[in-house]
Amino acid sequence: MKSERVCLSTIICQLKKMSESEKIQTQKNPLKGLFNYQWILKNIPFFLFLSFLAVLYIANGHMADRTIRNINNTTKQLKELQYEYKTLKSEVMFKSEEQQVIKATEPLGLKVIKETPMRLKSEK
Fold first, then answer.
1. Which of 16, 82, 95, 109 has its CA 20 to 30 A from that of 31?
2. Global pTM?
3. Per-domain residue ranges for the chain?
4. Alpha-carbon distance 94 to 91, whole Å?
5. pLDDT tens digit string along 54-69?
């Protein structure tokens, strides 16, 4: 029995020494213990959170690009409308000059009266 106890105690001592040697090896290489299965499982929610943030970051970039394109298109349309407004305004100003109005009304038989109009008086 004593020999069995001695044998068992030596085996236990050897196992302890082996586990100590493994500890020393993992202390020498800290990255080896960093990426073990349990650590990965423990940090899955964090990895999912990081993935979600990455997707949001990419989506935000695409939305910003689309918004910039829309702003540029709207700016171009606004400039075109401003040019059209200025052109139409200048045409209206030109056509509303007295000489242009006279030329436009001559085919209709309307003429400019050079006499002053008469005032009509009503009796009460």
1. 16
2. 0.51
3. 15-101
4. 5
5. 999 999 999 999 999 9
